[in-house]
Amino acid sequence: MKFLSILFLLVFNLLGAEVISASQKPKSDLESISKHAIVFGTGNASDVYVFVDPLCKYSRELIKKIDDNKMLQLSNRYYIFLYRLPRLDSEKTMQYILESTDPKATLIEIMIEEDILELVDFKAKESTIKALREIADVASTLDMTQRPYMISFDKDSKYCRVSEGTASCLEELE
User: What is each CA distance from 156 to 27, 30, 60, 85, 93, in whole angstroms?
Assistant: First the structure.
């Protein structure tokens, strides 16, 4: 009887579980790591998720453009994620940015003002390493190869736009 009760509850839970469609998976994955993002802007027209490497010159140019253009920030919300390019040794820099008292200001200092840091003795907290690992896990599912990488969702839309490659949330064009 216990077995049947457990089986019934298991089946009931499986039927009641919310199924996330393939087209919604990228958005739910990105929302799950948004707590680790450095946010620019207060707008609600679009949520733009941006993956940058703080030592990448193209990432720096994009961050400068976002920081300088207040109209972009008024219409959109930018979630900036630190994600390392394999060819750059930026792991400690990313850890330093996330652990600073003001990650946004530190990001601007490093990426726009190009402050040079000496991080030889810097040791990151385990929570910071875990946060960067979570970002990397989500990024690996998006099949990105370049930085900066952007994926945006307009308000109330289930479809996305990406800066490169494909994503399951891309709208099929007819």
Answer: 12, 16, 30, 32, 35
